[in-house]
Design a protein that fits this description.
single chain, alpha/beta, Rossmann fold, seven-stranded mixed β-sheet, 6 helices, 25% helix
């Protein structure tokens, strides 16, 4: 037994059913070797990577139709990797990344569960430079701005890993930290567009959630 319980979901995206192994609930926790603690992940936050969140689904739906031709794509904070699975099915050049110690194994399991080739994965704490990772034409993520300091960390990631011409797409549920990221990316030469959209069936307009799109 790994010390945590899982369940399987089926998510329909772009006309395909994706089978996803996720944690059974938010009460799951297992860190016998202290790897999560060393990564700064508390027991209260440990299980968050292992669920299908509305923002992740919105981003994955966008990846079903987004123009990806010729683009090298990086997913930040991939969690279970729903968007990366969609991109892998579309034969995109995608690298999934996270800093949770179990993200890579869940991603590999879910790729195999859906009959897809293994997805390139990178352990990528946002505050640390990774000179071997290279540069990308597109950087995506969902609900990345859940703490005030994340805008600064993310803008630093873009400086290190975005190509001169780059697109950044973030599904943001509206925690109030998006303006800081927008200002930081504007200073790097990005134009900014946002589209408010429904993240939950019960959401009503004007929607709190939005897709943040940055281009340069």
């Amino acid at each position: 037994m790994p010390g945590y319980l899982t369940r399987q979901h089926t998510v329909q995206l772009g006309g395909h059913d994706y089978r996803i192994r996720a944690l059974r609930d938010l009460q799951q926790f297992a860190d016998p070797d202290g790897h999560a603690e060393q990564a700064g992940i508390s027991s209260a936050l440990w299980s968050l990577f292992g669920h299908i969140w509305p923002s992740g689904r919105v981003l994955a739906e966008e990846m079903c139709v987004f123009d990806i031709a010729g683009k090298r794509i990086l997913e930040l904070g991939c969690g279970l990797g729903l968007s990366s699975l969609v991109l892998q099915r579309r034969l995109a050049d995608v690298v999934a990344s996270d800093h949770h110690p179990l993200a890579e194994s869940f991603l590999a399991y879910n790729a195999a569960l859906n009959g897809l080739p293994q997805i390139a994965y990178r352990h990528l704490p946002w505050a640390e430079a990774d000179g071997a990772l290279g540069h990308f034409d597109m950087i995506i993520g969902s609900d990345l701005l859940y703490e005030r300091g994340h805008a600064e960390l993310l803008s630093g990631m873009m400086q290190r890993h975005a190509r001169r011409e780059c697109e950044v797409l973030i599904a943001d549920i509206g925690r109030g930290n998006a303006n800081s990221l927008s200002k930081a990316l504007a200073s790097q030469g990005y134009s900014i567009d946002e589209r408010r959209c429904r993240f939950e069936e019960t959401d009503t307009a004007p929607f709190r959630g939005r897709l943040l799109s940055y281009r340069r």
